[in-house]
Design a protein that fits this description.
Jelly Rolls, 0% helix, mainly beta, eight-stranded antiparallel β-sheet, 15 strands
């Protein structure tokens, strides 16, 4: 059995991974690696199924399970979207408490216009969303604290303002972590950098 993975830090998550305990999978995403981070570009839009159209970069652990409590941090930038109307400027975020069949999870996203949202998804249906609004900035620092009971997300903009949202968990286990570009049509992007994962305690 491999040594248990307690933490990792990656400026370009999912790119040139050398730790054999960490597995990255691309789902409906074009991925570009650069010094600025890892950019996920949507391949399909909401017309193909709103909650099934996200561009994802999933992190799983080989021969290990995620603990019930852990922390994920990253910087998200490069948010863009091709829409001319109803455009939040692109959105991206993270899914946790994921089921193996990908139908149930907790996720949050932050958008280019400063919109922050958490959503509980059960059986591919979203509910119980909570929203906040930050003044927009070109990038956002994100801290996600996960327990078996809740997800607590803190998002900070570049001008020193932050907001925190807590949401009850859809379940106490996590099959994989998923970095996601969520809004809205094909071609939308989000860039993830300074990614870290660590177990609690």
């Amino acid at each position: 059995m491999p040594v248990e993975l307690n933490s990792i830090s990656r400026n370009e998550p999912g790119c040139d991974e050398r730790d054999t305990r960490v597995v990255w999978d691309r789902v409906k995403a074009d991925v570009e690696c650069s010094a600025e981070g890892t950019t996920l570009r949507k391949q399909i839009g909401w017309d193909d199924g709103y909650l099934k159209s996200y561009a994802e970069l999933r992190m799983s652990l080989k021969d290990q399970r995620f603990p019930s409590a852990f922390k994920v941090t990253f910087v998200i930038s490069g948010l863009s979207a091709p829409e001319l109307d109803m455009n939040r400027g692109g959105c991206g975020g993270l899914a946790v408490h994921t089921s193996a069949d990908s139908g149930t999870y907790d996720y949050f996203n932050v958008c280019g216009d400063g919109w922050v949202e958490t959503i509980r998804v059960i059986g591919h249906s979203g509910a119980d969303n909570q929203t906040r609004q930050l003044p927009p900035s070109g990038s956002y620092a994100v801290i996600v604290d996960v327990t078996a009971a809740e997800v607590r997300v803190t998002v900070s903009n570049r001008i020193g303002q932050s907001t925190t949202v807590s949401s009850p968990a859809v379940g106490g286990t996590t099959a994989y972590l998923s970095l996601m570009t969520t809004w809205r049509n094909a071609g939308a992007t989000a860039t993830f950098s300074d990614f870290s994962y660590s177990t609690a305690g």
